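Table S2 (continued). Query chain:
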Amino acid sequence: MLFSLLTLLACGPKPPPVVAAHSPSREATTRPAPLEKSSFSLPSLEKGTLQNNIPVAISKNNEVPLVYIWITFDAGGWTDPDDQIGLAKATMDMLDEGAGEYSAGALSKELRKLASSISTQATMDGASIRLQCLKKNLKPSLELLAEILQQPTFPQSVWDRKAQEYQQELARQTSDPKQIARRVWRKLLYGQEYAGRLQQSTHIESLSTTAMKQWHQTFLTPDNAQIWVGGDTSLDDILPHLEETFGQWSVESTQPFPRKPSAITLQEPTRTFVYLVDQPGVSQSVMYLGHGVGTKTDEHATPLLLANQSFGGMFTARVNMNLREDKGWTYGAWTWLSYNYYPGTWTMSSSVITKQTAAAIREVIKDIRESKSTRPLTTTEFERGRGDLLGQFPLKFEQPAYLLSRQIEISRYNLPKDWLNQYEDRISKVTLEDSQAVWNDIIDPESMFIVVVGDRSAIESDLLDLGYTVIHTDYNGQKIEKE
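Corresponding output:
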């Protein structure tokens, strides 16, 4: 009995081990020095020309056995007739809905067999058809690409369905506050030209497969084409395939090519106005504010890029830290620069809780004013912005698509040929003083467009207290006379 009792006691729970008292070291540690900047060489391009004079540019990347082929055309939404806004987009959307003897379903089936994908798109400034395929399936994939590009059938039954989808999408755009804000913003900047020509329901009704065929014949031609290739190939490997597939392609345009948009001055406000679009009952207001800033190749463009990065171009920038982290009025507030055929724009945008709409505008204007006077950009903000721009740059080239996109941009907008190669050098040479001076000179809080899409009954009186003229508009940016 005594033995059993001792055995049970021996198997019972043990007291916790005694741990010697220990105080963590409070000695200050030295922050490690930044790592030395890794060397980075921009991927190079090999260039060639097909016998029908289509230029070819190739970026080699052997990391995975994939090949990317983009065929681009300098024709986009800017070519749309005034009564058929959306024609370029509709044409490109319909391009792969049937070609030659293939229906849309048959094309999809063939591409799945090859593990390939083909996509088409039209933006405001250009159109493209893009192929991604395994290197071993390059030849049959290219044949399908050529079939889609050169022999689209534009089936009426497919367009009948798509036209309904377009109308539904337009209805969504004209009821969604973010989409409405973008529409009104474009109208304010571009007026009745270029991106200011907003699509309406009647435009979709006027689109036809006949008009699409005509657009295709006019703009998707060899003399308006460029071929861009990336991935596991080289000029010597790919050129014979491209020559066989596209070298004999010959199409004579049936209409004269229109003049491209010219870089004329954007519409500029003489003073700050608030353009208010009423969306009853929404819990957040969408706000856009800004103005034009000149062209991408202007001497001040790079210093302005760095100043913008410090002020609102990244998560830790000043405007986001204020509206999101300090005030808690938004999930994010950002500023950015954008460029196209026209001079560029500087834009700030955010979605803020309704009751703080006017207060958020007041804070942004205050931040801009102070950044030009009592609270200029700091060395810490500036160097963080520079580091962000330089640090991200090499990472963007992990995919061949980024280099191809940037080279297309250089070609389309006539940027200097060494624009990409000189990027790091341009960013590195700018000083805080350079950026502050340009920021002070270019960004003007006293002459801005401000767009607000929100509940008028809840925010208008506060907006009026800002001291700006409030102009009521509809979702197309058209002024609404006082009720």
